């Protein structure tokens, strides 16, 4: 028996039903890789960030997330170069979908039990997404911004419902605006932390401070 189409499970109806010690025998989600491209590149390498934002409250299957990741990754690798971007899938499929299997072969009318024990068995997984929730994010150089937008436009076709492509005001995947980030960097108050950045505060023991950073003003 094949997989049911995603339209059967698109609506968010019941409570979240995650994989647990009570809900066993759940098939693995189709999507296994959430970061592709140059995921080790530092925070200063890719200042631009473009998001694909869900404009609908719905379930998005793990198959759709994987298909969108492949489509976006393939376009960016071809037109921007495989070392010129970092793609991150931001929605994770934790909600388990169920199916109440019925026999559909000849002579099944005597074996089918109808509504008895209708709570189904696990069939697949999906992500429950809200309006305004980010599905995919791409960070790259400013020169490749139009490629990132086109890659996310192609990824849109893999999802049901409506999505919007939004160019972020933030610096890469950080929480700081671009002007704010550059200001903090010029004042030496921010340090790179992988794909993110940390603001140096004015709290904590002086012994833990690096040389030259002992007395930061309270505005830091």
**Strand order, sheet with most strands:** 1-4-7-2-8
Percent helix: 10-25%
Number of strands: 10
The description of the largest β-sheet is: 5 strands, antiparallel
In short:
With 220 residues, the protein is α+β, with helices and mostly antiparallel strands.
Describe the structure.
It is a single chain. The protein contains three helices and ten strands; from the N terminus they run E-E-E-H-E-E-E-E-H-E-H-E-E. It is α+β, with helices and mostly antiparallel strands. The protein has a five-stranded antiparallel β-sheet with strand order 1-4-7-2-8, with helices on one face. Helices cover 18% and strands 24% of the residues.
List the helices and strands and how they pair.
Blueprint: E1 35-37, E2 48-54, E3 58-61, H1 62-79, E4 85-89, E5 95-99, E6 121-129, E7 134-140, H2 145-156, E8 163-167, H3 178-186, E9 190-193, E10 196-199
Antiparallel strand pairs: 1-4, 2-7, 2-8, 3-6, 4-7, 5-6, 9-10
Helix pairs in contact: 1-2
Key structural traits:
220 residues, alpha+beta, 5-stranded antiparallel β-sheet, 3-stranded antiparallel β-sheet, 3 helices, 10 strands, 24% strand, elongated
């Amino acid at each position: 028996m094949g997989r049911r189409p995603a339209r059967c499970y698109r609506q968010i109806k019941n409570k979240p039903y995650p994989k647990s010690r009570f809900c066993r025998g759940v098939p693995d989600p189709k999507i296994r890789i959430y970061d592709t491209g140059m995921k080790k590149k530092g925070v200063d390498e890719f200042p631009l960030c473009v998001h694909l934002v869900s404009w609908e409250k719905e379930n998005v299957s793990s198959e759709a997330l994987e298909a969108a990741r492949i489509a976006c990754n393939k376009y960016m690798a071809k037109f921007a170069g495989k070392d010129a971007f970092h793609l991150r899938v931001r929605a994770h499929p934790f909600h388990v979908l169920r199916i109440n299997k019925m026999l559909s072969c000849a002579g099944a009318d005597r074996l089918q039990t109808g509504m008895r024990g209708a709570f189904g068995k696990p069939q697949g997984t999906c992500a429950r997404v809200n309006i305004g929730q980010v599905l995919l994010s791409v960070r790259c150089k400013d020169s490749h911004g139009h490629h990132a937008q086109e890659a996310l436009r192609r990824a849109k076709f893999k999802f049901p419902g409506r999505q919007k492509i939004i160019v972020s005001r933030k610096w890469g995947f950080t929480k700081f605006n671009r002007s704010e980030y550059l200001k903090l960097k010029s004042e030496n108050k921010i340090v790179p932390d992988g794909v993110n950045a940390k603001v140096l505060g004015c709290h904590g023991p002086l012994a833990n401070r690096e040389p030259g950073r002992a007395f930061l003003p309270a505005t830091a």
